[in-house]
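Reviewer 2 asked us to include a model.

Predict the structure of this chain.
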Amino acid sequence: MATTNDDKIFRINHCLCQFSNNGAYLAIAFQTNLIVKDAKTLDTCRSFVFADVIQHIEWSSNSEYILCANITKVVVQVYSIHCPQWKCKLTEGSVGLQSVTWSPDSKCILTVADFNIQISIWNLEDQTVSYIQNVKTSAFDKLHFSPSGKRLAVIITDEAQDTVEIFKTNNWKISRKLICDRLRSIDGIRWSPNDELLCIWCSSTAEPKLIVYSTVWEKPVTTFSPVETARFSEYNCEKELKGIESVEWNSSGQLLAVIGFNEVVLLLNYVTWKPLSQLYLDPVIREGNYLTKVYEERGDSERTLHARFASCEERVLHEVHERPICIEIGEKNVYDNFSIAKFKVFEFSACGQYLALTHELYPTTLWIWDICTDYLDYMLLENPISAVRWSPVHPQLLVFSECTRVYEWTRKGASSVAMSKTMSVVDGRWHPEGERVALCGYNKAMICKVPTRF
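Predicted model (structure tokens):
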């Protein structure tokens, strides 16, 4: 990994650095200034001044517009890259602002009011506003666009009954209203990659259940219950799934990962909807197959000894062969008596073969699961993991842990790369082509070239 432009470092607001979807531009937010740079030369193309300190930025999918928001002050402004004199300002008023995002067609902006009072849909073409009322407050995933962008599914609560309303994004009218009587409540929704299936689930540990609804057949195609699966299935589960925290499809849509509240993941296939494999985040790495690899961050005394003016011990990743290994358990917040520890990271690689996971119970540990071979790689770091980012092109993973190093994993192995001593890296933003990455600190960013070692 090598920095470009003489290790040039940009000042930014908290991690607000983002490549456009077409890869042509890099947007940087610093205080009230929005700066758009050429992604190749890093020369400034456009510069805009926002009404307040910028807290959020997001490119439209066509890369022609970029929105800035101050969530606290309830202000949203939209700027045009090709017509810099044009801008649009949106104000939610007294209902407050929880979040803001683009519609997939780049024609509308959706703002979610505080306490989910309503979703406002701002049409930039005809300058109209429409609303979706009674959005469920407690749902994990309350609204979800289909991958094609043609539909939006929203969880609605009306008179103590949960339903799912599906809207057509070309006119924002309801096309279907799904009443899921077999679910105690509706806590999350997720579209399949091909747009044809919608997962709807109830998270309750007493009666967890998942319904897969087909938009082609306009009816449910299957119902999955962890309790019934553990009781009647021929598949031998090492540990029973407790509740449903979330679900995720892999990129091909052939596997559905069901995530429990007890550090368990089940993979279902899309033909029989029965478990194919299971992963349990065991706090002990036990004697197992020889293909399981463990990379642990340790001090490199030899490097430190030869390093001129070394101010601290050099840290590198070593492959560890001894077993068993006890995984470090994080400390729970003593003031937080009600929250349940959850998966913090749960992301498939672009090819869909690998799954990266971190959990709040084990803040310094990363699991990389090869779902084809059912083998695991572990990365045991010194500091808590702040973010992981898969390359959009290759099975190449960057791991960040609020330090001056970046960790890289490919199927060939894992390594540690020292970066600028003046910047702690907490996150990253891949360029769409996967050749470069913007490394983000709390108030700084730098651009690096990433060699492909996949």
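The longest strand covers residues 362-370. The CA atoms of residues 167 and 173 lie 5 Å apart. We have added this to the supplementary material.
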